[in-house]
Amino acid sequence: MAGSLLAPLVVGCLVALVLGVYGGVHKPTGFSIDLSGFSSGQYVKSWLVTVAALFAIIQLTSAKLMYAGTVSWMAGLHRWSGRVAVLLTVPVVVHYLYALGFQAATPRGLIHSLLGCVFYGAFVAKMMALTRRGLPGGWCPRWAG
What we know:
Blueprint: H1 2-25, H2 41-68, H3 74-100, H4 107-130
Helix pairs in contact: 1-4, 2-3
């Protein structure tokens, strides 16, 4: 099992590292790319992250219901709510990397930057690990097929 998980963990760590390094060496522009229909970049980020958080709640709820085996279509809801949640955060990440870079001047900025990099690294590792065959049944739940 450890060998099967090594590649996803390494790739996830590399993604987190590359995001952090890019954010650190990229000269921040100080402005963001606005989306049509929003008055500022702040509103775009706020709305996207709020909706992504709602999809994350759907993720947690569907995972619990899926584990209990209550509804057969729950696995599809779980997969798609996770995809949508991550896709909604991509413009936010692009904004932070492009406009602000990796912030280490304040504790808040450092924690925010580190958690963002770790989140995307962990997401990549999880997605890669879910596709691995040969892992014990405890790793890939019964509903994953």
